[in-house]
Design a protein that fits this description.
By secondary structure, the protein is mainly α. It has 19 helices and 2 strands. The chain has a two-stranded antiparallel sheet with strand order 1-2. The longest helix is centred in the first third of the chain and has 29 residues.
């Protein structure tokens, strides 16, 4: 087991760090006497002890993590946090283990699907904790996407590897990841503070402003109310959330470069961001026209408000709702679920396919059409004027293949467990894309699904969040022979 000592050391430290995260909700419980003091204190002590038990025996092991270790440490950390995060939910609320793990996994992966009802009347410590869990998850995703996945060569961010201050060497995870992570944390926290102040100025109270900023910047989607953003019924708040969801769904490496170079030119010259903005505009216009023509809302401007809000919310996989989208007429609900597959930019907190992959797959398709006409032509694959390494194209096609296989396989399983096919298809899409909202029986809440489906969807949320390859590579015999 000494070969895995560095992995054990990281997981142990992470759990100790997570136990500190129970302090804010514990303080809320103490200050408000909401009955959750004991469970949060027990969770803090239990997780801290487990983390210490893992860390202390290997604390002197200084071997650096290799690339192969990276896959195991990422999956082990996220799995451990999802399980540990479920503890206070299980102890405070009258729910089963499957529900608690599902809610925690949904939070830490910034999916936003919930099995809980009656949020308005829940203990304030739990309402805070759910939002905080998503914010912490979003922070982890940024570090994962920009600092770790490029080196594992399974995400979309390797495309930007040359442009970001390199956190990695050829075959080892190095301390420079800490430098990159620190810069990303500061950007993430800064955006959260700005969003909180904007929402407070727009009319939210301090608690709502901070907690909704948590889940906006993490593009997560949990709310402290059953009605989600519809609770506030404010056009100003809706448009502010649209702005901050868009900013949070940009590549955080661009934010990093913009600050370092003190210029906004990096945003204007990024081909992925340009395509993303064009797609959002086109989708918003399409939904506006459909809502207006079908008479869902009385005026064009009201249709525009709700169309733009949900287009951005679903495409960025945030999952906030300002209306009951699953009750919209015709094919609109299905369209909303499908656009979540686009996701935001690589290196952001969004889930889904990522715009850079959509761009590259489209470019590759057009290239193959040209080759049919001119078989001997050499058409390089370019992004932003740079010719891409063939390995990047292969990784994209590999991701596409596995994404489709996983969607089909999980849908077949869930459809055998749930009676409604629309429910089965939508929950798999929502979980894999880390969206949150679904259709059918899960339209208002996921609580009516079977426990088996909830366990499967918890796995699907991790699978989608960790870019599929990271999880599936551990299931191959080859990995364990390294």
């Amino acid at each position: 087991m000494r070969a895995y000592a560095p992995v054990q050391r990281v997981v142990g430290l992470l759990l100790v760090f997570l136990s500190v995260g129970f302090v804010p909700p514990l303080l809320f419980a103490l200050a408000n006497g909401d009955g959750a003091t004991g469970p949060f204190l027990a969770s803090l002590v239990t997780v801290a002890l487990i983390g210490s038990a893992l860390y202390l025996p290997v604390r002197n092991n200084r071997r650096e993590l290799r690339v192969a270790d990276g896959f195991l440490v990422v999956v082990a950390c996220w799995g451990a946090v999802a399980l540990a995060g479920a503890l206070p939910l299980y102890l405070v609320l009258d729910i089963g283990l499957a529900d608690a793990v599902f809610e925690s996994t949904s939070g830490i992966t910034t999916t936003g699907a919930t099995v809980l009802a009656g949020l308005d009347d829940m203990p304030i410590s739990i309402r805070w904790y759910r939002q905080q869990l998503q914010w912490m998850g979003g922070l982890g995703i940024i570090v994962l996407a920009v600092a770790i996945l490029p080196m594992l060569r399974i995400g979309g961010m390797e495309i930007y590897k040359a442009e970001v201050t390199g956190p990695v060497k050829e075959n080892r995870l190095t301390p420079r990841i800490a430098e990159t992570a620190k810069a990303l944390w500061l950007i993430y926290i800064g955006l959260t503070v700005i969003c909180s102040l904007a929402l407070w100025a727009a009319g939210m109270n301090v608690f709502d402003a901070v907690t909704h900023a948590f889940t906006t910047i993490s593009t997560a989607g949990f709310s402290t109310y059953d009605a989600s953003v519809a609770q506030f019924d404010s056009a100003l708040i809706d448009w502010l959330l649209v702005l901050f969801m868009f900013v949070a769904s940009m590549n955080f490496a661009l934010h990093f470069l913009a600050l370092r170079r003190a210029t906004a030119q990096v945003y204007l010259h990024d081909p992925e961001l340009k395509l993303f903005a064009i797609l959002l505009l086109g989708i918003s216009i399409l939904i506006t026209v459909l809502l207006w023509r079908q008479g869902v809302y009385e005026t064009f401007w009201e249709s525009l408000r709700y169309a733009a809000f949900h287009a951005v919310s679903y495409t960025t996989t945030t999952g906030f709702t300002a209306a009951d989208v699953y009750l919209w007429p015709g094919t609109l609900p299905l369209l909303m679920i499908l656009i979540s597959g686009l996701g935001g930019c690589a290196g952001s907190t969004t889930g889904g396919f990522k715009i850079v992959r959509v761009y590259l797959v489209s470019k590759q398709g057009l290239r193959e059409l040209k080759r049919l006409i001119h078989p001997r032509s050499v058409v390089p694959l370019k992004l932003g004027g740079r010719t891409l390494n063939p390995e990047v194209a292969n990784a994209v096609w590999g991701f596409v293949s596995l994404y489709i296989v996983c969607i089909v396989f999980l849908t077949l399983i869930v459809s055998s467990l749930e009676e409604d096919l629309v429910t089965s298809v939508s929950v798999v899409f929502s979980a894999m894309n880390n969206l949150g909202p679904a259709l059918g029986e899960a339209g208002a809440n996921w609580g009516g699904l079977s426990d088996t489906t909830k366990w499967l969807m918890s796995f699907a949320m991790l699978l989608g969040r960790l870019e599929i390859f990271t999880v599936l590579v551990l299931l191959t015999p080859t990995y364990w022979k390294h």
